[in-house]
Amino acid sequence: MRKATPAWQAFNIANLTFLTLLALLLFLPFLNVIAQSLSDSNAIIAGKVVFLPVDFTTINYEYVFSDAAIWRSIGVTVYITVMGTLINLLATASLAYPVSRPEYVGRKAVIIFILITMVFSAPLIPNFILMKNLNLVNSLWALMLPGAISAFNFFVMRSFFLQLPSELIDSGRIDGCGELRMIWSIVLPLSKPVMASLGIFYAIGHWNTYIAALYYINKPQLWPLQVKLRQLIQSDDISIDPNASQFSSLAHMNPEGIKMATIIVATIPIILIYPFLQKHFVKGMMVGSVKS
User: Where is this chain's protein located in or outside the cell (predicted)?
Assistant: First the structure.
């Protein structure tokens, strides 16, 4: 292996320094949100909070975790994230695998139709009429079924399936495996990297569901967390539990602290998923980058 030149070493140091500073710069707004969520209302109103909490307190989080409406929104978001991601992966794999096999006669036509959906999308009104005719309005299925297959993720998964050795598929057929048995026993165990990568993309999309919920969900009890967060941010009139008298003054004196605490609660869970899937995520991002 050739030794790195001084110029190359200097470039690596400068590049690492720049990326580190950029990462810190991007993290500063998030750090400010954390600081405000842990600060006293008077310090927030006075503008004293920057990157460290002032007059440290956890009262904002106590309010958030005592609010039944927020817990209900969290439950809705967790449900559509888990169920929606499972539906996405199942639907995407069910379409990508047969299209990746050369014996599937109509695969070229299917690919063309999918490419068309990447260029042209249906307007809002026809989409809403379709959801209404299917009785999906004010139903959580309206947040999961319409986007069951992402065209981009379909092509990523198809590229992965194309790289699987055809000898494995042929050997499975010789051993008497049907298509479903072969997919379950051979294809899916080898597809963990792409499944983990696309699962992260799909899960983040469901966790951040906002526009679709505004269009199709009118019942407050079915609002996901992002819509509930929007309600808190747009209005300073934060609802309080009549039985939680200790929060009655907090809701009016420190709405900003409560909003920031809610933002943290809405952000942290999806961030914590990444470290557990990082290895598969990096492998999945290499799909299609190298051609043999």
Answer: Cell membrane
